[in-house]
Design goal:
Distance between the termini: 39 Å
CATH topology: Alpha-Beta Plaits
Strand content: 25-35%
Order of helices and strands: EEEEHEEEHEEEHHE
Shape: globular
CATH architecture: 2-Layer Sandwich
Radius of gyration: 17 Å
Length: 188
């Protein structure tokens, strides 16, 4: 039997079981781009996520220009964050994010190298997940100012489920001293 998700009420249609959860989970995503028209990649990614119908009650941070981290010989990034509600399960949300990346033309490159678009799941409600393909909360987010600054703008009181600290407090203690500068407001 094929399991599919519908935004409608639970129903059985043919060989497909359509399920829906009424309880929305709060998710926080981090988006970044440092190739070509960086701002346009962010806008297209946000539009694709919204148009999927799987995110609701969303809030967007401003767009920030940031220095690259880990691999420094590349262009500056534009980064932003989204907070939203979803009834997708964590791996379904990962599939959605990856499909948006692929649809926008993301190419496979070495870790931490340039990218057309990158969408990371930073938090999925207060859940802790350690899988081969998915780790939530994002394991290095507390060490990255380019992740924390945008999230702090839209969800400063969100509590990290492992460190039991707010985003605002994590940002204050963040050892990363790289520049995160306001670039623009997101306009869809």
């Amino acid at each position: 039997m094929l399991l599919a998700i519908s935004k409608q009420n639970n129903q059985l249609q043919g060989n497909n079981l359509f399920i829906s959860s009424n309880k929305l989970k709060t998710v926080i995503l981090s988006l970044g781009s440092n190739i070509s028209d960086r701002k346009n990649y962010l806008i297209l990614a946000v539009r694709s996520l919204i148009n999927s119908g799987y995110l609701s009650d969303y809030r967007f941070s401003s767009i920030y220009e940031t220095d690259p981290v880990d691999y420094l010989n590349q262009s500056k990034f534009l980064n932003m964050a989204i907070s939203a509600g979803t009834d997708l399960e964590p791996f379904e949300l990962l599939n959605l994010c990856q499909s948006v990346e692929v649809n926008l033309g993301r190419k496979k490159r070495a870790k931490w190298h340039e990218r057309e678009i990158d969408i990371d799941i930073i938090f999925y409600d207060g859940e802790i997940i350690h899988g081969k393909d998915l780790v939530i909360p994002h394991q290095r987010m507390h060490l990255r100012r380019f992740v924390l600054e945008p999230i702090n703008e839209i969800a400063p009181d969100f509590i990290h489920p492992i460190f039991n600290m707010s985003i605002e407090d994590l940002l204050k203690k963040c050892p990363d001293e790289s520049q995160v500068l306001f670039f623009d407001k997101l306009e869809l």
